Amino acid sequence: MISDETLRIGVYVCHCGSNIAGMVDVEKLATFAEGLPHVVLARHYKYMCSDPGQELVKKDIATFDLNRIVVAACSPNLHEPTFRRAAEAAGLNRFLVQMANIREQVSWVTADKDEALEKAQAHLAAAIRRVAGHEPLQREFVRITPRAMVVGGGIAGIQAALTLADAGKEVILVERQPSIGGHMAMFDKTFPTMDCAACILTPKMTAVKLHPNIKMLTCSDVQSVEGSVGSYKVKVRRRPRYIDENMCVGCMQCIDGCVFTKPKFPNPFDQGLGLRKPVWIPFPQAVPPVPVVDPEVCLQLSRGKCKQTCVEACGERNAFRFDQQETIEEYEVGAIVVATGFQAFDPSVIPYYGYGTYPNVYTSLEVERLLNAGGPTSGKLVLRDGSTPKRVGIIHCVGSRDANFHAYCSRVCCMYALKLAHLVREKTEAEVYNCYIDIRTPGKGFEEFYNRVQNEGVQFIRGKVADITPVAGQGTAADGGLVMQVDDTLLGTIRKINVDMVILAVALEAQADTADVRRTFGISCSTEGFFLEKHPKLAPVNTANDGVLIAGACQGAKDIPDTVAQADAAAAKALVLIDSGQIELEPNTAWIKEDMCSGCMTCISLCPYKAISHDADRKIAVIDAALCKGCGTCVAACPSGAAKQHLFADEQINEELEGLMNYV
Amino acid sequence: MSGVNKGKLALYWAASCGGCDISVLAIDEKILDVAALFDIVFWPVAVDAKVHDVEKLPDGSIDVCLFNGGIRTSEQEYMAQLLRRKSKVLVAFGSCAQEGCIPGLANASTRRQVFDTVYHQTPSTENPSGLEPQPKTEVPEGTLHLPVFYDTLRTLDQTVKVDYYLPGCPPEAERIWEAITAIVEGRLPPPGSVIGATTTVCQECKRTKHEKKIKKFYRTWQILPDEETCLLEQGLLCCGIATRAGCGALCPQVNSPCIGCHGPNEGAHDHGARLMAALSSMIDSDDPDEVDRIIREGIPDPVGTFYRFGLASSQLRRTNKTVRSNGKSRSPLPPGEG
Amino acid sequence: MSEAFKPKIVAFLCNWCSYTASDLAGTARIKYSPQVRILRVMCSGRVDPAFVLKAFALGADGVMIAGCHPGDCHYIEQNYKTIRRHAMLRYFLEQMGIEPERLRLVWASAAEGQYLAESIDSFVADVQKLGALNWSANWEEDGQREEMLAEIVREHAAVMEVQP
C-alpha cells in the first residue's frame, strides 16, 4: 500500500461533446478536483474515450509520475475497460483506475446546472478519495476445458449440440426423457409452413445420434454442478432403462410380446390421452430407438415375478437388464448450455373454462396429439365418444396476458391457435370460432398465414370467453354440447355459442422445477419464472454465471425459428469460451485475512456458490477465489472483519462515502 | 527505562467504575516488579500525589500513563489534556477509555435527563428545593466551580491523541502484564495500535461450531444451554463473534454469552455494526415480516445489546438529542426536547 | 423548516440491477432529483450496516439501498441477506431516535430506469418532509464546555503559579 505522501492522482473530466459539458461546468469541476488531497493534475477534455483522450492519460502517467487515475465521464459499465487498458499501456496497474459517473447519473438526469455541478463534484470527490485506497491487482484468467454440455434434448438442445459438434467440440447431451425431441416431437404440423414437425425434426435427431462428437445421455438429469466457468464438474444421474442401449436393435418386438396384451397405462407423451404397456416407447421415431420399462407397473420390477415374455421376444439380442441400477457419472466441461424448455400451463386452475370437468375441453397440446398421425387416435380429431366435432371453439390467451396467472404474452399461441383452427377445418370441416384479445402474428409468413386461415372460413371473435358451461337441460356435458359465452367487443354484444369441443390455447410457462434447476446451474430467474439472461438486448443467451448459456423456451416463450436461432447463438457463445482457451475474471473476489478469522462460521452458509468452506484443521474460513463471484455478502456479514474484498474493500467504500459527503 | 533510573508511571481514572485500577493489582506479586521499575507519580486511588504535582512536571516527563475511564466532565477532559502533555506514552487502559464502556451507555440520554433522574425522580430522592450541581456558584468568599457534566461521553481518543489501547472491562491480568513488559522491553507495536489479539473470542472458545442459521433469539433466562454447542447457535446473543479475543472466552465457558467487553476486533471501529451485520445475516428466513418478528421478539434492546460497551466510540456515538418520536420508538428519550 | 431544505441522500446501488437501471434512466434522459449521491457496489448484499451508519454520521438525511427483486438477484439469493440487515437497521435506528423512514430499501431490475427515478424522487420528497437530520450536531455540547475548561486552567494557574 503506497503511503499517503507518494500518492499522485491524475483526474480527467470528460466533456463527452455536449453530453456532459452541456449541463456540467467541466472547467469548474476540474478546478474543484485540483483542490482535493493528492491530486497532482486535473484536466478536462472533449472525448476521453477517444484515442487522443487515452494518449493524454498515458503521457501524463509518464510525465507526471501518476500512480492513480480518475476519469469523470460515462458509466464504468461502458468504458472502465477502456481506461484500464490505457493505464496498463502506460505501465500503471490497470486496477489503479476509478471512474466517476457524471453522465448517465448526473448530466443526463439533472435539469439544473448548479445542482448538476454539485452532484458531479460529490461523485468526483468520492472517486478521488476511493482510488487512493486501490491496490495493484493481478488479472485473473482461468483455463477452459474444451468440452461442452447441453442440458435438454428438445429442438434447442439438439441444435446447440449439433452446432458445437460440427465445430469439432466434444458435446455431452443430457435429456431427462427416454427420447430426445422435446415438445416439438409432440406436434403435428408447424406454423406457418405446415411442415410436419416430425419430418423436420427427425433428421436432426438422427444426426445427433450418429454424430461422433456427441455423447447422448437419455433418461438422465443433472444432479449437481461444482466448479466454475472453464471447469465445471457435473454429476449426471443416469436412471435405469432396464434395457441395454448397446444391445437393443429397435425391433420393438418386446412391446408386442409383453404379458400385458393390451396397453393399460396412461402415455405421458400423449398427454395422458393414449395408453401404453409397462415396456413402451414414447413415439415411433424416438431417439434412441430403444424402449424403456416403467418399474412401477412392470410385473417383474414391481413384484419380482413375471413370465418375461418380453425377454423371450427379444431372443438372441438379449437386451433386457432388470438388475440395472441408477448410476452417477461425472463429466468435466468448460461450458454448459441449458435448454430445458417449457411446460404447458395447466388450465384446471381456471374452473370457468371447465378443463378437467367437461370431457371435451382440451389443451392445445392434447389436440396436437390427437391430430398427430402417431397419436392416440391415429390423427383423427374426435371427441371423447369417438364422434367428429362439428363446432369447435378455440380460446386464446389461456393463462397468458392475465393478471391472475401470467402477465406476459406467450408469443406462440396466436400462431398455433390459427394452426389448430386450420387443421381442424381441414380434418373435420367443423365450424371454428377463435376467441382472441389481439392476433399477434409478427414473424415471416405469419400475417399471410392469418389471412389464409381467415379465408378458410374460420370465425374470429374479439373478446375474452367468460365461461364454458354445458348446454342447459342436458345434464352433464357428457350428454351434450358446451356453451361458450364470449363478449364480442366488435359487435358489442355477449354471445353464447354452442360448441362440441373447446381447445384452450394455453400459455407457455417455466418448468415446475425451475427454482431447483436454476440453483443447480447457479443462474437466476426473472419474475416471470424463466431463466434470466445477462442482458435482454445485448446478451440474451449469456447468464450471470459466465460459463452457463441458455437457449430456447427456458429463457422465455418463443417459437421454433427463434429457438433454433438462439440455440446457435448459445453454441457460438460456448465456442467463444472454449476456443479462446481461457476466460478473464474480474479480481473483485473476497479473501480471508487469516490472523483475524476465528472460525466462527458466520460466513459459511452465506455463499450461494459454496466458495467458502471451513478448514477444520486450522479452524478458519477459506475462500476459493475461483468459485467466488465477488458479491461481497460475506464481507458485509463478517463480525471480525476477517473477510475482505478486493476492489470493494471497506476502506475504499468508507473513503468513497467521505468523498460523497465531505466536499459539497 | 530499565536500570538505575526508574521510569515515571501515572494512572488516572476518569468516568469509570474503579475496576481497572483494581485490575492492575490483579497482576498479584508482579506489582512489586512494577514498583521496582517505575516511580508511580500519580494514581489517585492508591497514591497521595496531587494534580498540582503533575502540573509541575516537565512536559513529556511521565514515561507511561495508564488512563482509564471515559471523558464525561470538563475536569476529566482537563486531566486527559494534562496527562497527554506530560506523558510520553498515553495508554487508553480498559474499555471506558477505549470505547466508553458502560458510562458510555449514558449517551442514550442527555445531561438534562440524567440530572432529572438522579436528582429529582428516583423514589428514594428527597430534594424539595430542586438542588442540582451547578458549574458555578457564588458564595461570599468568591466563586466555586464544579466540573461541567457533558451531554455526551467521549472516549479518550476523541479528546486527545492516544498511543496505545488495552481493551477489556477490565483488561485481563495477563494482558496487563504483557503490555507492561512490552513497554519495558521496547517491543511495542506502531503507535495507535491496540495491544491485543487480532481475532475474536470464538477462537478461544472451546464450544463446537457449525453453520449459523438462527430461527429465534433467546434471553439468557429463557433457556438452559447445552455445554458443548456454540451459544449463538442455540439462539443466545453471544457477542463473541465480533469481540476481540484475549479473555480466554471465560464467559461462554460458564454458559454465559459474551457481552463484548473487549470491544471490536482489529480494524473495526463500530462494534455494534459488526454485530448487527453478522446476527442479521444469520437469521434463517427470507420473508421480511418473519425476519422482523424474529429480531423484535428476540432482541428487546438493540442499543444496549450491540453497543453495551462501544456506544461512545461508534459512528453515531449517541442517540438523537432532538427526538422526533414516532410513538413506537423504544428510545429512553421522552418525546420533545432532550 | 425552510422550503429550500435540500436533503443529502446516499444511495447504494447494486451493479447488475439498480445501478444499471440508473444508467438506463440516464440513457432515457429521465430527470430526477439530484439530491441522491450514488455509490456502486456489486450486490446489495455488500451493503454493510456500518456503511449506512457512517453515511448518517457524515450528514446524510436519508440512505437508500437498491437491489434486484427478490428471486432475481444476480448472485442468486444475496438480496435476502439485504432484507435481514435492513430489518435490523430499521429497528436499531428507531431506538437511536432516527426515523426508520430515513432508510429505504428499493428493488429495481435492470430494466426499471423509470421506476428507480420515481422511487428516488418519492424518497427525496419524504425525507424533505422529515427535515434535516444533521447528525453531527448531536456531538456538540452547549458551549459551557469550552468556558469551563478555560476556567479550570485559569484557576490552577492562579493558585499554583504554573504556566498553563
Describe the structure.
- The complex is a heterotrimer of chains A (664), B (338) and C (164).
- Chain A has 17 helices and 34 strands.
- Chain A is α/β, with parallel strands linked by helices and 664 residues long.
- The model of chain A has no long low-confidence stretch (mean pLDDT 94).
- Helices cover 29% and strands 15% of the residues of chain B.
- The model of chain B is unreliable at 324-338 (pLDDT under 50).
- Chain C is α/β, with parallel strands linked by helices and 164 residues long.
- Chain C has a 4-stranded parallel sheet with strand order 2-1-3-4.
- Chain C starts with 8 loop residues before the first strand and ends with a helix.
- The radius of gyration of chain C is 21 Å and the shape is elongated.
- Chain C is built from 5 helices and 4 strands; from the N terminus they run E-H-E-H-E-H-E-H-H.
- Chain A binds chain B through residues 595-602, 604-606, 619, 633, 636-642, and chain B through 198-203, 209-213, 240-242, 245, 264-268, 274-275, 277-278, 281-282.
What features would you highlight for this structure?
heterotrimer; B: 338 residues; alpha/beta; six-stranded parallel β-sheet; two-stranded antiparallel sheet; 12 helices; 12 strands; 29% helix; globular; disordered C terminus; C: 164 residues; Rossmann fold; 2 domains; four-stranded parallel β-sheet; 46% helix; 14% strand
Counting DSSP H or I runs of 4 or more residues, the number of helices of chain A is 17
CATH superfamily of the largest domain in chain A: FAD/NAD(P)-binding domain
Percent range of helical residues of chain A: 25-40%
Helix tally of chain B?
A: 12
Q: Estimate what percentage of residues of chain A fall within beta strands.
A: 15-25%
Indicate the radius of gyration of chain A in whole angstroms: 31 Å
Q: What overall form of chain A do the CA principal axes indicate? A: globular
* Major β-sheet strand ordering of chain A: 10-7-6-18-29
Structural class assignment of chain A: alpha/beta
